[in-house]
Amino acid sequence: MGVPEALILRIAEGRDRAAYAQLFSQYAPKLKAFMMGRGLTAIEAEDLAQDALLNVWRKASYFDPSKASATTWIYSIARNLHIDGLRKQKRAQTLPEDLWAPEPEQAPDTHLIGVQDAKTIGVLMQTLSPEQREVVRLSFFEDLSHGDIAQALSIPLGTVKSRLRLALLRLRAAFETRAESKSAKIESKSV
């Protein structure tokens, strides 16, 4: 077990203020830089880093070293707080005047195609290793840069890039195999 993990466990077990101070001094500057890299000002990033580390203090008992490293857990808390903040900002924006205007007509099969595409992506994602799935999720669904992913997962940037490249190759192969099998089924039904 690494030093950050041990510090979090000391906080969880005995509310150890010295362990928290050590964890805070180690992670506050890193979280601030991480959030500034995501477009926050220095003041906003510092506030968010402090909020994230306050959550570490409050939720230390929820940390499970078998599920994630301390760094991943801490960065996930910060990232989730940032996402929550963005959602609140969107909600706070004024509503458009045409809010009650009817939505344009959509072909019935358009919605069905979207649902089928989402299901297909979910099935294809299961063909990836957990590490590849996590990198794809962070890159495409969470919209993190490769550098942010490397920092959040505590892995080298090259590892992020190679996992992403291999994942995309595997997804392409799985998609092509799936498309070929569907096309073969259609041909056999028409014969």
TrEMBL record:
<dbReference type="InterPro" id="IPR013324">
    <property type="entry name" value="RNA_pol_sigma_r3/r4-like"/>
</dbReference>
<keyword id="KW-0805">Transcription regulation</keyword>
<keyword id="KW-0731">Sigma factor</keyword>
<dbReference type="GO" id="GO:0003677">
    <property type="term" value="F:DNA binding"/>
</dbReference>
<dbReference type="GO" id="GO:0016987">
    <property type="term" value="F:sigma factor activity"/>
</dbReference>
<comment type="similarity">
    <text>Belongs to the sigma-70 factor family. ECF subfamily.</text>
</comment>
<keyword id="KW-0238">DNA-binding</keyword>
<dbReference type="InterPro" id="IPR000838">
    <property type="entry name" value="RNA_pol_sigma70_ECF_CS"/>
</dbReference>
<dbReference type="GO" id="GO:0006352">
    <property type="term" value="P:DNA-templated transcription initiation"/>
</dbReference>
<protein>
    <recommendedName>
        <fullName>RNA polymerase sigma factor</fullName>
    </recommendedName>
</protein>
<feature type="domain" description="RNA polymerase sigma-70 region 4">
    <location>
        <begin position="124"/>
        <end position="173"/>
    </location>
</feature>
<dbReference type="Pfam" id="PF04545">
    <property type="entry name" value="Sigma70_r4"/>
</dbReference>
<dbReference type="InterPro" id="IPR014284">
    <property type="entry name" value="RNA_pol_sigma-70_dom"/>
</dbReference>
<dbReference type="InterPro" id="IPR039425">
    <property type="entry name" value="RNA_pol_sigma-70-like"/>
</dbReference>
<keyword id="KW-0804">Transcription</keyword>
<dbReference type="InterPro" id="IPR007627">
    <property type="entry name" value="RNA_pol_sigma70_r2"/>
</dbReference>
<dbReference type="InterPro" id="IPR007630">
    <property type="entry name" value="RNA_pol_sigma70_r4"/>
</dbReference>
<dbReference type="Pfam" id="PF04542">
    <property type="entry name" value="Sigma70_r2"/>
</dbReference>
<dbReference type="InterPro" id="IPR013325">
    <property type="entry name" value="RNA_pol_sigma_r2"/>
</dbReference>
<dbReference type="InterPro" id="IPR036388">
    <property type="entry name" value="WH-like_DNA-bd_sf"/>
</dbReference>
<feature type="domain" description="RNA polymerase sigma-70 region 2">
    <location>
        <begin position="23"/>
        <end position="91"/>
    </location>
</feature>
